[in-house]
Amino acid sequence: MSLSNVELGKWVEGHHRVSQEGKNGELVHVYAIAGPPVFGGDPGRWDFDIEFPIWGVTFILKGYVDLTTLEIDATFSVRIPIIGTFKLAEVKGNLKDGVSVSFGISGILSGKATFYVRDGWIWVDLSAEIFGTTYGPVSIKLIPLP
């Protein structure tokens, strides 16, 4: 099965947003799929798969949020062109308080990310050094919660 350009365009429209973030007004593209578990289970669970390319790499957050408690359980990864995808950290804790992780891949990148809820959206404050260049900090609005 293949998608027509119109079908693909409609899908992207519903799963992609662009915003200007950071002190330099970087354009950040956020791609996401989110919702309750497809085949039932906990109705208070909100699964997500979020990707946001920035600074020459693509950061990935994949997991779930308990909508009652705002507890997050997710994996934070990075995809580096040609090199591959690497797990950076486990993101576990309460988004009301903010969940911070430090990460690094020797000689390639290091940084810090803090995930939290503001105005009904999951946000990340992100700063990183990638191949010797320092980026951020930026605050990126990721996905809305229902």
Structure overview:
By secondary structure, this protein is mainly beta. Helix content is 8%, strand content 66%. It has one helix at 5-15; strands spanning 16-21, 26-35, 45-54, 57-66, 71-80, 84-94, 99-105, 109-118, 121-130, 133-144. It is globular, with a radius of gyration of 16 Å.
Descriptive labels:
10 strands; single chain; 66% strand; six-stranded antiparallel beta sheet; four-stranded antiparallel beta sheet; 1 helix
Mean pLDDT level: 88
Distance between the termini: 31 Å
Q: Estimate the strand proportion.
A: over 45%
Largest sheet: 6 strands, antiparallel
The number of distinct β-strands equals 10
Main β-sheet, spatial strand arrangement? 1-2-3-4-5-6
Radius of gyration: 16 Å
Helical content stands at under 10%
Please count the helical segments.
1
- Label the structural class: mainly beta
Q: How would you spell out the order of helices and strands?
A: HEEEEEEEEEE
User: Spans of 5+ residues with little confidence (pLDDT < 50)?
Assistant: none
Question: What overall geometry do the principal axes of the alpha carbons give?
Answer: globular
